[in-house]
Automatic annotation (TrEMBL):
This is DNA alkylation repair protein. InterPro entries: ARM-type_fold, DNA_alkylation. Transmembrane segments: none annotated. Pfam families: DNA_alkylation. It comes from Paenibacillus elgii. SUPFAM superfamilies: ARM repeat. The lineage of its organism: Bacteria, Bacillati, Bacillota, Bacilli, Bacillales.
Length: 216
């Protein structure tokens, strides 16, 4: 990947991420092609080698390596055992920013919690009780793709636990989670928003989809 670095693109990509990380300057299609080529030639690392490879990628300074690590995790998400949550939690709390955390929440955690629902109460409550904004955001967002499988009671309870948060990323996550669920159960979301003291940002985000669908 470093041999395909493009410094002219790296600067704008770094700026877009508010200078949180260095970049090689490889856009998503090119990066995807490079990872695909590598996997075709070498295969997906197995068992402990996968965790080791992901960690090696994660400590690299350039952000594209973390994206490559997420791709590797995705290749094995349907076969990983429950212990994968330990690695995923480590990644959520390391080099944390919305781009990696949201991918991990909606895919890696969402898939693990679907296959191993016994993990949900233990981890969501511990994450909400932690000082980590990113773990809290993950607890709010892991059901993004669940649709009718969403545990609405759990979602609403987790939101209540952090409804008074001053963190932008938490307020945004509350609205995002509710907006996605409103596509499945509009009435439940409207009722919850009406009955719950939520930040204005969260309310706007929560009702954005259903309000846009209302007849003018």
């Amino acid at each position: 990947m470093r041999s395909h670095a493009n410094p002219e693109l790296a600067g704008p990509m770094q700026a877009y991420m508010r200078d949180q990380f260095a970049f090689l300057g490889i856009k998503s299609p090119a990066r995807t092609a490079l990872v695909r080529q590598f996997l075709q030639e070498n295969g997906v690392p197995e068992n402990g080698e996968l965790d080791k490879t992901v960690r090696v990628l994660w400590v690299q300074p350039e952000r594209e390596f973390q994206y490559a690590a997420l791709t590797l995790l995705g290749k094995t998400s349907k076969t990983a055992d429950a212990s994968r949550i330990e690695l995923v939690e480590e990644l959520i709390t390391t080099k944390s920013w919305w781009d990696t955390v949201d991918e991990l929440a909606g895919h890696a955690v969402g898939e693990l919690f679907t296959r191993f629902p016994e993990l949900i109460p233990v981890h969501t409550q511990r994450w909400m009780a932690s000082d980590s904004m990113w773990l809290q955001r993950t607890a709010l967002l892991f059901q993004l793709r669940y649709k009718k499988r969403t545990d609405a009671a759990l979602l609403f309870e987790l939101i209540r636990q952090c409804a008074d948060s001053k963190e932008f990323f938490i307020r945004k996550a509350i609205g995002w989670a509710l907006r996605e669920y409103s596509k499945t159960d509009e009435a439940a979301v409207r009722r919850f928003v009406a009955e719950t003291a939520l930040p204005p940002l969260s309310i706007r985000e929560a009702l954005k989809y259903v309000d846009r669908r209302k007849p003018q």
